[in-house]
């Protein structure tokens, strides 16, 4: 069932009773997203966060020159959304697209706030995730400013080992901040070992 992986994820950080799980499930909604279809687009009002039960999604922004900049990959077991849109009730600045056929479990921000009242352990769970996400994005920013493309690719391989073979190279190039042509050339050269 689509909820099993989410319950496992939550259980890594907090303990929920069977009653808590039943209440949580009553607030969740399921959705299937076909490969190359969008969960939402830039400009949409985005009031939900989504947990990937199966498949993989990506979030990205498009700059004024039409170039895509991938912000996040979300394989099974990861959350994805446009948090600025969710928290500030503003149009989304990100696009979220399924890279492969995917199933998600989603919850609106309003329902999530209600769940915090009913199941305080969930507020702790989402706080832990938010702190880890902030630390990860800070490190990614530091890496973008201080590491070579080869080093950023190495970090990508460590962070997303299950995606290396299945991910189109143009997506990996976008994530590490290089053109597909540069990325292809970089891969054709032997990697230097430290």
From TrEMBL:
Supply the PROSITE patterns for this chain: CNMP_BINDING_3
InterPro entries per record = cNMP-bd_dom (IPR000595), cNMP-bd_dom_sf (IPR018490), RmlC-like_jellyroll (IPR014710)
Give every Cyclic nucleotide-binding domain span: 16-115
Any coiled-coil ranges, and where? none
Q: Which Pfam families match?
A: cNMP_binding (PF00027)
The record's section on SUPFAM superfamilies has: cAMP-binding domain-like
| Protein name listed in UniProt | Crp/Fnr family transcriptional regulator
Give the species this sequence originates from. Answer: Niabella digestorum
